[in-house]
TrEMBL record:
<dbReference type="Pfam" id="PF01935">
    <property type="entry name" value="DUF87"/>
</dbReference>
<feature type="domain" description="AAA+ ATPase">
    <location>
        <begin position="18"/>
        <end position="278"/>
    </location>
</feature>
<dbReference type="InterPro" id="IPR027417">
    <property type="entry name" value="P-loop_NTPase"/>
</dbReference>
<dbReference type="InterPro" id="IPR003593">
    <property type="entry name" value="AAA+_ATPase"/>
</dbReference>
<dbReference type="InterPro" id="IPR014588">
    <property type="entry name" value="ATPase_Atu1862_pred"/>
</dbReference>
<feature type="region of interest" description="Disordered">
    <location>
        <begin position="305"/>
        <end position="330"/>
    </location>
</feature>
<dbReference type="InterPro" id="IPR002789">
    <property type="entry name" value="HerA_central"/>
</dbReference>
<dbReference type="InterPro" id="IPR008571">
    <property type="entry name" value="HerA-like"/>
</dbReference>
<protein>
    <recommendedName>
        <fullName>AAA+ ATPase domain-containing protein</fullName>
    </recommendedName>
</protein>
<feature type="region of interest" description="Disordered">
    <location>
        <begin position="480"/>
        <end position="500"/>
    </location>
</feature>
Length: 500
């Protein structure tokens, strides 16, 4: 790994590491990524490696050591399948999550780790699984992401560190702050490399993990970049300061350096204030959050929906109660609530869990009686609503068969599948990439094309083009196909609401 204070080589036992796992800690700029790169380069020829890379820094390993680069901008089913085949064929890879938001990164990493974890026993070969910025995927407390994404990611990280050893998975996790990393994940590591840190709580935890006195924790403030204190059966039986050695590859990003400004040109004002003609053709992305509803409006709606109290006693007789309603009335109210939620233009880009919480709140405000709708049923209704099916098509035999076929894909893909099926049943033009992407809840046209490829791999559709290059999607089981459609069109991207 480098050298110790006396100039002797600092060695790490890879076989021991595979059985005992490793935790790396250090503030930004302390040299964590350099340390991980040194470890990966030195062990590349001895063990299969999988790197969960949130910033795309480790993709340069592919040029020198042949790591396969896996783009995280795929469906969860695709990532799980790739991870399973990675284990079968023993290929080292880098899962790059660059460009995804934090919740998408958590879901992609969880799907990939779970795919590796669920591999068949005959493929349980040893794998070094390196997770950079582990506090993102195993947070100690909930943050701005949805609860189901946090649980999914935390569960995958827990499986990696707690149960992965028997399956050949050796976790190497790196974090900027121990205090932000879930304790049950950090506690499973038996080897530690602690770098520079400044906060008292992180220094205290680092000292505890290394078995050092609390008074010695101050030393972590004085560590230089690339200097770490090592401890563990794969490193040293006593805390040992080491200096990480050089690496053969480099990250695409680097630490900022001072750079003098260029000489200002004479026409600097014209350069800055004269717009580029292309600027007027670029879409304007407005990131301002929607205006909150006034409290008075919410109170007025609640008071209007609340039934009159039947008494004033202290035994509960005076509490408002939800009157019983017929099944038809309940279904009508639920449909209205669902239509209101999906009428929001931004609803297409919100996760199902966020929409579901809003649905439950609105249903309570409407005094809908009976048990709340289950999450699975809600997702199914949202998928059908987003397909834009009309009453005539919904009553056809082809649509009933399409609903049955949609059960073969995961919940998050059903809306896209039914959208394509509706177009085929009605003989309409094939939806564009932008239309498909919005039905899936993304702005990525490339992901839309991947979804069609996924359906085709599972023998659900057949994609072909006419002589003009327009796309046609056929459904063999439905004996129907769409009319030719331009995949690059941008004028049909509105997602129908549930009321349409």
């Amino acid at each position: 790994m480098g050298t110790v204070s006396g100039g002797e080589p600092a060695k790490l036992d890879i076989e021991e590491l595979l059985a005992t796992r490793l935790l790396v800690q250090g503030n930004s700029g302390s040299g964590k990524s350099h340390l991980l790169r040194r470890l990966l380069e030195q062990s590349a020829q001895w063990v299969q490696q999988v790197i969960i890379d949130p910033e795309g820094d480790f993709v340069t390993l592919s040029d020198r050591f042949g790591h396969l680069v896996v783009d995280g901008e795929r469906t969860e089913a695709e990532l799980a399948g790739i991870a399973n085949r990675i284990r079968q064929h023993r290929v080292s890879c880098v899962l790059t999550l660059e460009g995804l938001d934090i919740e998408q990164q958590m879901r992609a990493a969880a799907a990939f780790l779970n795919g590796m974890f669920d591999a068949e026993r005959e493929y349980w070969f040893p794998v070094l699984v390196v997770v950079d910025e582990a506090q993102m995927f195993a947070p100690s407390v909930g943050g701005d992401v949805s609860e189901d994404a946090r649980k999914m990611s935390l569960g995958a990280m827990t499986n990696l560190m707690c149960r992965g050893r028997k399956r050949g998975l050796a976790g190497v996790i790196a974090t900027q702050r121990l205090a932000k990393l879930a304790k049950n994940v950090a506690a499973e590591a038996s080897n530690f490399l602690m770098g520079r840190t400044f906060l008292d709580i992180d220094m205290a935890r680092a000292a505890d993990l290394l078995g050092m006195d609390r008074r010695q924790a101050e030393m972590f403030r004085d560590l230089k970049r690339g200097n770490f204190v090592a401890l563990g059966p794969a490193l040293s039986r006593r805390p040992l300061p080491i200096v990480i050695g050089t690496v053969e590859t480099s990250a695409r990003s680097s630490s900022p350096k001072l750079m003098p400004l260029p000489d200002a040109p004479q026409d600097v004002e014209d350069l800055i204030f004269t717009p580029d003609p292309e600027e007027f053709t670029r879409p304007i992305v407005r990131r301002a959050p929607p205006a909150p509803r006034p409290t008075t409006d919410i109170l007025a709606e609640l008071s209007k929906a609340a039934p009159a109290a039947s008494g004033v006693g202290g035994s509960g007789e005076g509490r408002p109660s939800t009157p019983e309603m017929s099944g038809e009335e309940r279904e009508e109210r639920l449909a209205q609530v669902l239509a209101e939620i999906l009428a929001d233009p931004q609803a297409a880009y919100r996760t199902d869990s966020v929409l579901y919480q809003e649905f439950l709140v609105r249903a309570r405000m409407r005094r809908v009686s009976g048990p709340p709708m289950a999450m699975g049923e809600f997702r199914r209704r949202v998928a059908i609503a987003r397909s834009g099916v009309d009453e005539e098509t919904a009553a056809s035999e082809g649509w009933v068969m399409a609903l049955d076929l949609s059960q073969r894909v995961s919940d998050d893909l059903q809306g896209v599948f039914l959208l394509m099926a509706r177009a085929a049943i009605r003989g309409e033009a094939c939806p564009s990439d932008q239309r498909i992407a919005k039905a899936y809840g993304t702005h990525s046209a490339r992901r839309a094309r991947r979804l069609l490829g996924y359906f085709e791999e599972h023998n659900l559709i057949v994609v072909h083009t006419d002589f003009a290059g327009k796309r046609i999607v056929a459904f063999p089981d439905l004996q129907a196909e769409t009319a030719p459609g331009d995949p690059n069109a941008t004028d049909d991207c509105e997602v129908p609401s549930a009321a349409e």
